[in-house]
Amino acid sequence: MTDGVLTGSRWGMYGAEDLGGNYQAIFVLESGFAPDTGNSLQGGRLFGRKAYVGLQGDFGTITLGRQYTVIHEAIASTDVMALANLGLVGFQGGNYTGGVRQDNMLKYTGVFGGWTLAAQHAFGEVAGSFTRSSSTGGSVTYADGPFKVVGGYQVIRNTTTYFVPTPNSDQKVWMLGGTYKIGPATLFANYVNNRVDAADYRNQTIDLGVNYAITQAVSLMALGNYDRLQHAGNSGRRFTGAVMLDYAFSKRTDVYIESDYTKLNGAWTTLAGQSNFTTPFFGNSTRLGVMAGLRHKF
Q: How would residue 135 be classed by pLDDT, with cut points 50, 70 and 90?
């Protein structure tokens, strides 16, 4: 038994105060937890998923605190199983983007007709350095009827992760993706390029998916993800395929069953063998997963 893959379990508090003149003050506090044990996730933080305050109005929304990065939201919006922890974002626990969330972030989002603009700056707050561990990013989304296209970019300065242990390295990520709705089906596609030149690290991935509404209550999701990794003169490839069938009893309760298969070679096998890797392979180059779950929203 484990936490469900369809969406991470959470509870939280959300609030808004009308300030007049079409302005609102807002806040979000959201905590992740494992329902099988009751333990807090996100490193045991009280509000590890989100913790921010903000102001919204006709100009858009400005928020300050711990929140999702702009590049993560751009990728997730074009990944059919991003929220299910099986797609591009979920497989590596956000390390494609230097973390799904970042602390000390100032973020802006504005909607102008069919265009959505987003920008962020997260302050590193490292003593003696204004830039270390800080990040800057932005994205542009255009939606028109059944079609949506998204582009995004982010740089994290002087970062160190278990993917790239070289200190004083800048991680640069850019993506381009889109969705298209055809009748009961929605198609998803994206390309993500992630690199740290100082560490001779480059990661490229192509993600394709579909969500098909069989009935109002039953939906079928499928994805294919191909990834090429280059690091310190070594290279490797990864392929992940997954299917999921979901049945909604109501707007708040659904059940699902899914199966996923991943195959690794080369540098990817070495990477997945690390003890702190998000998706363990236990020394193998392939992994088959099957899961059934129940989700309730309140």
A: very high
